[in-house]
Amino acid sequence: MTRKPYKRPMSGWWKRDPFFVRYMWREATALGVLAYAIVLMTGVWRLAQGPEAFEGWLQALRSWPALVFHLLLLVAMVYHTISWFEIMPKTMPMMFVGGERVAATTITRVGMIAAAAALVLLLLAWMLKP
User: Fold this and answer.
1) Quick one: which of 47, 73, 116, 130 has the fewest CB in 10 Å?
2) Could you tell me if 21 and 79 are in contact, meaning their C-beta atoms sit under 8 angstroms apart?
3) Is the separation of the CB atoms in 32 and 73 below 8 Å?
4) What pLDDT is attached to residue 38?
5) What is the arithmetic mean of pLDDT over 13-23?
6) Can you give the CATH number for the domain in which 106 is found?
7) Backbone angles phi, psi at 101, to 5 degrees
8) What is the pLDDT of residue 1?
9) Domain extent at residue 39
10) Do 115 and 81 form a contact (C-beta atoms < 8 A)?
11) Is residue 83 part of a domain?
12) Does some domain include residue 3?
C-alpha cells in the first residue's frame, strides 16, 4: 500500500492568523508607495514637456478623483508608517544608551513622534506657502 505524502493546503494561508493578515496589509501598502511614485514621475515627465503640460498635470491632481486617491494613499501611508515603526525594534540591532538596552516601545514611540513631526512640518509648509 502506497501512502501519499501530506500536503498542507496553501490557499488563504495568511487569512488563518491575525498576525499574517496584518503582515499582508502592511505589504500591500507598498503598492500605494508604487502608485505615488508613478504619480510623481509623471509630474517630472510633464514638467520636462513644458509649462502647459505641467499645468495640466497640476489640474488633474486638483480633480475630485485625484483627491480621493490621495486620501486613500494617505490612509495607507499612515498605516504603513505605524506598522513600520512597530516592526523596527524587531529588525534592527539592539541599541544601548548608558549601558542599558533601549526598550522596543521607546524605539517605536520615537519613530512615531518623528513621523508626526515631519507631517506637521509638511502641513505647515503647505499652509504657509506664498
Assistant:
1) 130
2) no
3) yes
4) 95
5) 84
6) 1.20.1300.10
7) -70, 135
8) 66
9) 15-127
10) yes
11) yes
12) no
Each residue's pLDDT tens digit, 63-82? 999 999 999 998 988 888 88
pLDDT band (50, 70, 90) for residue 14: confident
| Number of domains making up the chain | 1
Alpha-carbon span 82 to 70, nearest angstrom: 18
Residue 10 lies in a domain: no
Tell me if 43 is assigned to some domain: yes
Q: CA 17, CA 26: separation in Å to the nearest integer? A: 14
Helix residue ranges per DSSP H, 1-130: 18-49, 51-61, 64-91, 104-127
Residue given cell 508613478 in the structure block: 38
* C-alpha cell read off for 126: 503647505
Q: Tell me phi and psi for residue 97, to 5 degrees.
A: -130, 120
The residues, any chain, with a CB within 8 Å of residue 83's CB and separated by 6 or more, are 22, 25, 26, 29
Length of the chain: 130
SS3 96: strand
User: In 3-state terms, what secondary structure has residue 100?
Assistant: strand
Query: Does residue 53 register a pLDDT over 90?
Result: yes
**Cell numbers at 49, concatenated:** 514637456
Angle in degrees, CA 113, 127, 39, rounded to 5: 80
